[in-house]
Amino acid sequence: MAVMIAGELGDKTFETKKRKLLLEDEQTIKKKVNLELERMEDTEIKVKIFPILGDEYFRPVETEKMFVGKVNVKKETSRLIKELSSHWPLTSRFHLKRVRGTQQKDISEILIRPVELNESNESYSLASVLGEAQINTTGLMDSVAIYEVPKYPALTYDQYKVAKEFWPVQFREDKRIEKSLKDDLFNLEERKRIIEFMKMCLSVGQYGDEKVGCVIVDPVTSKLIAVAHDQRDLHPIQHAVMGAVDLVARSQGGGSWDITSKHVYHLHFSKEEMDSKITEIKKMNPGKDAKKMYLPYLCTGYDAYVSREPCVMCSMALVHSRIRRVFYVHKSPWGALGSQCKLHIQEGLNHHYEVFRLELEDSVQNCKESKMINCEGKPNCNSDS
Q1: Which of 20-29, 70-79, 273-282 comes out lowest in average pLDDT?
Q2: What is residue 51's three-state secondary structure?
Q3: Example GO biological process term (predicted)?
Q4: pTM
Q5: How far, CA to CA in Å, does 169 sit from each of 68, 83, 249?
Q6: Which end of the chain offers a freer environment for a tag, N or C, measured as fewer CB atoms within 10 Å?
């Protein structure tokens, strides 16, 4: 019995010492990180921030052919719109306005229906275009023309400017998208913090097996949640992002891996602080799951900074972790956030996040250095992140 008690006490002493050393390591990393940030505050580095959006935001305006009639009795316009819409609704073409004015005072033009593939550009009469459709043609002139009209809705102001030259279209400007396309989404202070965290990410990445780093931050408080680098030589799926997500879990009292590199960091988990806050939340929200309200779903609301474009596995891990935004510098031929695919905007996912690629002043030099290090003694210097 005495031996068993002594053994248990020995285990507890060992765990206490281990935890004390771990906390000391975390504090050392945190001090180094804070020192690095202070040094960066005195440095002015220009950065371009490109949004990774769907291809539809960048495509040229495509057109399709439509039969267009002329209305010469204004009071009949409303009725004609209803009757034509009942036969040929613009369901998939909601961006098109059905009617537009002309230079002739009392004459307007109206969309009748799309031109079928087997119909040529030859002249058509109103009767042949309407076919068997029961349309009261009062107010419609017999002449019919074929016009090119925008096939898809305009998603940006530049697309809208081109589209409206073909035919009047509906357009609701997304100011956030427009700002991001003009690289005007982030103010000076935000850009400064983005640069600082990305420089930290590039720095910690140099200690990784594939020279990839990842930093996860709470953007509201600018507090570091986790810092990790690639360790796939120890474990095939311990990419920088996977390691960082696991460290976030550790900061919340969980985690699956024992990531012990002296260059990694995670926010200290305090069970006492958690229990105190949960008790407080219970008092204010009786009958609700206070623990669920207190703990975020891993990375909910957080930003991830990655030195190299994440692969499919890491990108999907960020989906499951409910990350808010992802920033990266270097593209990867295996990347899933812009190169191979754009996983973050795929339909059917239960979470989507924003992605931005940074082009730093010294990004090209960093990229060259990174490639030199990755290629040294390794056949695949472009392996995924």
Answers
A1: 20-29
A2: strand
A3: tRNA processing
A4: 0.76
A5: 15, 21, 48
A6: N
